[in-house]
UniProtKB/TrEMBL annotation:
It comes from Ilex paraguariensis (yerba mate). Keywords: Transferase. The keyword Nuclease does not apply. This is UDP-glycosyltransferase 87A1. GO terms for molecular function: transferase activity. It holds the Pfam family UDPGT. PANTHER family: GLUCOSYL/GLUCURONOSYL TRANSFERASES, GLYCOSYLTRANSFERASE. Belongs to the UDP-glycosyltransferase family. Signal peptide: none annotated.
Length: 445
């Protein structure tokens, strides 16, 4: 046992990039703030291969369990089955790992809210647990009340446009019932974790307090546990100044390409690492973006054959997204509106083209477009999930979106800079992120 270590924190993330990233960023911040804390970050052997080379503080280490769940590389094929495996097959190997950990005994276990079994584990071992919610506070609130609307305990009102609207979720603006989703298998499994949150000792929200204060304050009044908004929970501290091109040795080719582009001229396009677009819609998007004549940097995993060589853009299978978003040549962000991407776009102060597909992406896109007013929706009003958007529409939309001189564009970009300033204050000295992380660490130790 290291005599300088007085406290031990165990982190158990849900094995998905959108969940592991905020958990890792939180743990790095905690480890860097106190040298007398040891943090054990539990991952499968496969995820250790993905994360093992990451730079991290010396007092943050990995704890590894066998690959008892389907591979990250195939989880798209059966997401309900993958989710169920995380809820039924991880608990036993995590228990065995905890039995082998060096002292001191864990002071707290921070776990992803999806992994409901960790609450039971904490009770058995008499260890306090802290639930980390990696989506927006608004989605947490609506999820808490999901069973009420499903069972008819909360009534929906019909708006003037003929859509069912729910307007009595505390702290949440009116929301169409269609955006709440159906009570299918995935929703049921996710809700199990939310139901057990009041049994935890702490709730950590990966949200920026200033952007969701009404919902967060309402949750604090409603729930019987301590709540801390620790967002944005992104690795933002090295990307504050985006006016200086990134140069030097080992600079990726995509960064060299960005360095050579005019200021605010490139559209960054990323549809996420999980749910894929239909092939027909992807064909239309690729053709529309290329027909627009706008420069683009596109993250595409297996679809590179669709792109014309010399078509005005750069295609990569992966990139350091936040570093790209903060580059001076990037003028806009086409996003699937996952919560991490939403926060990174806001932090970078970029206007966004919102193209959500499933889950919380839909409500995140409404936050971007309707609440923050820093983006446009790609999908037409009233268009269903299967409505094909043609290349001509996409080309025209992209051209208007990237027009730096239009009045509507200037207004949107100005609003994006206002949201950016809110994010920068949150991560600054004395900001809400620092204040809440310090308060959580003080309370848990």
């Amino acid at each position: 046992m290291d005599p300088t270590i007085n406290y031990h924190v165990v982190a158990i993330p849900y094995p998905g990039r959108g969940h592991i990233n905020p958990m890792m960023n939180l743990c790095k911040l905690m480890a860097s703030r106190r040298a007398d804390i040891l943090i054990t970050f539990i991952v499968t052997e496969e995820w250790l291969g993905f994360l093992g080379s990451e730079t991290k503080p010396a007092n943050l280490r990995f704890g590894t369990i066998p690959n008892v769940i389907p591979s990250e590389l195939v989880r798209d094929a059966d997401f309900p089955g993958f989710l169920e495996a995380t809820l039924t097959k991880l608990e036993a190997p995590v228990e065995r790992l905890l039995d082998r950990l060096e002292p001191p005994k864990p002071s707290v276990v921070i776990y992803d809210t999806v992994l409901a079994w960790v609450v039971r584990l904490g009770y058995r071992r008499n260890i306090p647990v802290a639930a980390l919610w990696t989506m927006s506070a608004m989605v947490f609130s609506t999820s808490c009340h999901h069973d009420l609307i499903r069972n008819g305990h909360v009534k929906a009102n019909v708006s003037e446009r003929g859509k069912d609207q729910v307007d009595n979720f505390p702290g949440v603006p009116s929301i169409p019932t269609a955006d709440l989703g159906e009570g299918q298998k995935v929703a049921h499994l996710l809700l199990e974790g939310i139901v057990l949150v009041p049994k935890a000792q702490y709730l950590l929200l990966a949200s920026i307090y200033e952007l969701e204060y009404q919902v967060i304050d309402t949750l604090k009044a409603e729930l019987p546990i301590a709540i801390y908004s620790i967002g944005p929970a992104i690795p933002c501290f090295t990307y504050i100044d985006n006016s200086i091109p990134i140069t030097g040795h080992n600079v990726p080719d995509y960064m060299k390409w960005l360095n050579a582009q005019p200021r605010c001229s490139v559209l960054y396009i990323a549809q996420g690492s999980f749910i894929s677009l239909s092939s027909s819609q992807l064909d239309e998007i690729v053709a529309g973006v290329q027909d627009s004549g706008v420069r683009y940097l596109w993250v595409a995993r297996g679809e590179t054959s669709l792109f014309e060589k010399g078509g005005g853009g750069f295609v990569v299978p992966w990139c350091d997204q936040l570093k790209v978003l903060c580059h001076s040549s990037i003028g806009g962000f086409w996003s699937h509106c996952g919560w991490n991407s939403t926060k990174e776009g806001a932090f970078a102060g970029l206007p966004m083209l919102a193209y959500p597909i499933v889950f919380d992406q839909i409500s995140n896109s409404k936050m971007i477009v309707e609440n923050w007013k820093m983006g446009w929706s790609v999908k037409r009003e009233g268009g269903g999930v299967d409505t094909l958007i043609r290349r001509e529409e996409i080309a025209g939309l992209v051209q208007r979106f990237m027009d730096l001189e239009s009045e509507e564009g200037k207004e949107m970009r100005g609003r994006a800079k206002e949201i950016q300033e809110i994010c920068r204050r949150a991560v600054g000295k004395g900001g809400s992120a620092e204040t809440n992380i310090d308060a959580f660490m003080k309370d848990m130790l």
